[in-house]
Amino acid sequence: MGSNIRILSAGKYLPDNVLTNYDLEKMVETSDEWIVSRTGIKERRLARENEFTSDLAYKALLNAAEKISFDLNELDALIVATGTPDRLFPSTAARVHGLLGLKKEIASFDLLAACAGFSYAIEVARGLASQGYRYIAVVGAEVLSRFINWNDRTTCVLFGDGAGAIIFQSSDEPGFIYGKLYSNGSLEGLLEIPGGGSMLPSCTADSQEYKIKMLGREVFKYAVSELSSALNEALVKTQTKVNQLSGIFAHQANIRIINSVLERCGIPFEKSFNNIERYGNTSAASIPIIIAEYMETQGMKQNDLYAILSFGAGFVWGVHLYRHS
Ligand code: COA
Q1: Is 87 helix (H, G, I), strand (E, B) or coil?
Q2: What are the CA-CA distances from residue 71 to residues 23, 105, 255 (Å)?
Q3: I want to staple 81 with a disulfide (CB 3.0 to 4.6 A). Which of 117, 206, 303, 307 is the partner?
C-alpha cells in the first residue's frame, strides 16, 4: 500500500461507426480542408442508438483488465469521469458496476469536470490511495454526439464518442510527482450545455438547450494562455527540463491549442502523442484513450516522465507530471 498511484493497465473502446469530414460536408456548410486546418480532425466515432456512455465505459474497462488478466473484483473504487452520463442518477459508474456484476465492497461514482475530468479523477484516485484503496479504476467515457446541434457547424465538427480506462495501483514509488488543478467559474457561458439539469429541467428532448453551445475563439485563447502557464509552472516547480520529458498526453480539443501550448513552453511538437485526427474531441475520454494507445504501441518504461494536461468547460483545467514505475 502506498500514498501514490501507478498506471497498471490502460484500455479503450471506440464505437465502430465513423463520421468523416466528408460526411459532415453533406450535413453543414463546411469542408474537410477547413476542419483539418483549423482543428486537426479528419474523422470521429459515433455511438450507435442503443449504446450508452456506460456501455462504452464498460468495454474500455474490460479491455484494460483483459490486457493484464486483472480480476475487476479486486478493485476498491470505480470512478467514471463524464460530462455525458446516461442519466442524472443513478451514476454511470454504478451502472458499469452492475454490468460487470462486481461485488458490493467496490465504491462507484461519477466525476463531472467536463474535458478536464481525467485530471480531476487522478487527484481523487491519489486521495483514495492515501486512505488505503489499492486498486482504483478511472474511466473517461462520453457519448457527446447526443448533445450536439448537428446544424451548428461551429461545434458539430469538433466532438466524438469514446471511452478510455486506466487501472491504477497504489504505490510507494513517486508516481505523480506533481499535480495541480485549477478553475474559473466566472466564464461558464463560453462553453455549456444549458438544459437537462435543475436549472432548466423541462425543455423538450429536441430542444437546442440540451446541446453544446460554445464561443470557440474565446475558449481557444483562454485554454492556450492558462494551459501554457500551468505547464510552465509545473516544469519550474519540479525543476524539470524539457528534454527530461518522455512525452505529453494532452486533452485532444484542437491540435492548434496543443501546439500553441507546446510552443509557449519550448517543447517540440513531437513530444505530444495525439489521436485527434481519428477521434476528434472525446472530452474526459481523450487522455485515457491516448494513454491506452501509447501503451499498446510504445509502452511506458521505468522512470519515464510524462506530462498530462487537460482543459474543459467550467472552466476547469489541470496539469500532472507522472513518473512511471
Ligand atoms: N466550417 C467552415 N467554416 C466555419 C466552420 C466550419 N465548421 N466553423 C466556423 N466557421 C467560420 C466562422 O463562421 C468564421 O467565419 P467568418 O469569418 O465569416 O465569421 C470563420 O470560420 C472563422 O471562425 P473562427 O471561430 O474565428 O475560427 P477559429 O480559427 O477560431 O476556429 C474553432 C474555430 C472552433 C475550431 C476554434 O476556435 C477552437 O477550436 N476553439 C476551441 C474549441 C474547443 O476546443 N472547445 C473545447 C474545449 S475542451
Answers
A1: coil
A2: 41, 14, 37
A3: 117
Q: How confident is the model at residue 197 (pLDDT cuts 50, 70, 90)?
A: confident
Using 50, 70 and 90 to split pLDDT, how confident is the model at 210?
Answer: confident
Residue that finishes a domain, picked among 141, 173, 205: 173
- What's the CA-to-centroid distance between 156 and ligand 1, angstroms? 11
Nearest CA to ligand 1 atom 14: 154
**Which CATH number belongs to the domain containing residue 183 in this structure?**
3.40.47.10
* Domain count of the fold of the chain: 2
154 lines ligand 1 (CB under 6 A): yes
Residues serving a catalytic function are: 115, 251, 281
Bridge partner residues of 4 (DSSP): 171
**Domain endpoint, select from 108, 141, 173:** 173
Distance from the CA of 231 to the center of ligand 1, in angstroms? Answer: 25
Residue 140 belongs to what domain range?
4-173
**Which pTM was predicted?**
0.96
Q: What is the pLDDT of residue 207?
A: 80
- Does 3 have pLDDT greater than 80? no
Alpha-carbon span 207 to 195, nearest angstrom: 8
Same-domain check for residues 169 and 181:
no
Dihedral over Cα of 181, 182, 185, 190: its sign = negative
224 near 255, Cβ under 8 Å? no
- Tell me what the mean pLDDT of segment 240-254 comes to: 97
Under the banding of pLDDT at 50, 70 and 90, the label for residue 203 is confident
Residues 22 and 162 in one domain: yes
118 and 183 share one domain: no
Q: Which amino acid, residue 265?
A: C
Cα 18 to middle of ligand 1, angstroms = 22
Instruction: Verify whether ligand 1 is closer than 6 Å to residue 284 (CB atom).
Output: no
Tell me phi and psi for residue 273, to 5 degrees. -95, 120
- In whole angstroms, give the CA distance from residue 79 to residue 111: 7
